[in-house]
C-alpha cells in the first residue's frame, strides 16, 4: 500500500520501495527556513544513527 509521507503519523514505519529491506520511522517535521526546504526526518529502524530527510510529497510503502 502506498501513501504520501505527510499522511503518516509520527512514529509510523515505512519503506522507500516495495522490495526494500530497510524500514524507516517517520520523525518530526522541519519547516522551510533559510537553511533548506520543508522536510521530515526519518530514522532507520536498524541503525539509530542513520537519518534521512524526505520531502512531504514523497511516496512511501507500508506493509500490509
Describe the structure.
The protein is an all-beta fold and 64 residues long. It is built from no helices and 6 strands. The protein has one domain: SH3 type barrels, CATH 2.30.30. It is 0% helix and 39% strand. The chain has a 4-stranded antiparallel sheet with strand order 2-3-4-5, with no helix packed on it. Strand 4 and strand 5 form a beta hairpin. The protein starts with a strand and ends with a strand.
Topology (elements, then pairings):
Blueprint lengths: L1 E3 L8 E2 L9 E7 L8 E6 L6 E4 L4 E3 L3
Helical residue percent?
under 10%
- The number of strands is 6
Looking across the biggest beta sheet, what order are the strands in? 2-3-4-5
Gross geometry: globular
What is the compact description of this entry?
The protein is an all-beta fold and 64 residues long. The protein is 0% helix and 39% strand. The N and C termini lie close together (7 Å).
Keyphrases for this structure?
64 residues; 0% helix; two-stranded antiparallel sheet; 4-stranded antiparallel beta sheet; mainly beta; SH3 type barrels
